[in-house]
Amino acid sequence: MFIAPKNSDLLLAEAENETLYLKLIEQINKDFNLANEGIDFPMSISPNELKIQLHEKIYRLIQYKFAEYLNLLYIIDVSEDEVKKMDGSDLVVLAEQVSFLILKREWQKVWFRNKYR
């Protein structure tokens, strides 16, 4: 049964422990490219650097390309209800929370694909 980790650090550690970290990077790259928001994380990126760069990308999208940000969330299939519950008064915090939702959804896809292939 899939149980989502409570934060980005735990999620990335779990991905590494299950040797699915590279698959997670591939999934993120694939979905961002599908949304025409080219992001190309190298396979050698550290979990911490991935988290930081993803956060920065989401922050920039929210601030400067909001329609593209919404499209990205739709393509990745991030829960609309979870996004609506968030407090958008601080963009840095919002971007961090949305980054975690993205990681969580991408991890869910990778985990299920691995478990049920």
Categorize the overall geometry.
globular
Report the portion of residues in β strands: under 5%
Topology as a string of helices (H) and strands (E):
HHHHHH
Mean pLDDT: 94
Give the strand tally: 0
How is the biggest beta sheet arranged?
A: none
Low-confidence stretches: none
The total of helices stands at 6
Count of folded domains: 1
> What Rg, in angstroms, do the CA atoms define?
13 Å
Helical content (DSSP H or I, runs of 4+):
over 70%
User: In angstroms, what separates the terminal alpha carbons?
Assistant: 15 Å
Task: Give me the secondary-structure category.
Answer: mainly alpha
How would you describe the overall organization of this protein?
The structure is a single chain. The protein is mostly helical and 117 residues long. It has one domain. 71% of the residues lie in helices and 0% in strands. Helix 2 packs across helix 6. The mean pLDDT is 94.
Q: Which secondary structure elements does this structure contain, and how are they paired or packed?
A:
Blueprint: H1 8-17, H2 21-34, H3 47-64, H4 66-76, H5 80-84, H6 91-115
Short description:
With 117 residues, the chain is mainly alpha-helical. It is 71% helix and 0% strand.
Protein traits:
117 residues; mainly alpha; 6 helices; 0% strand; globular
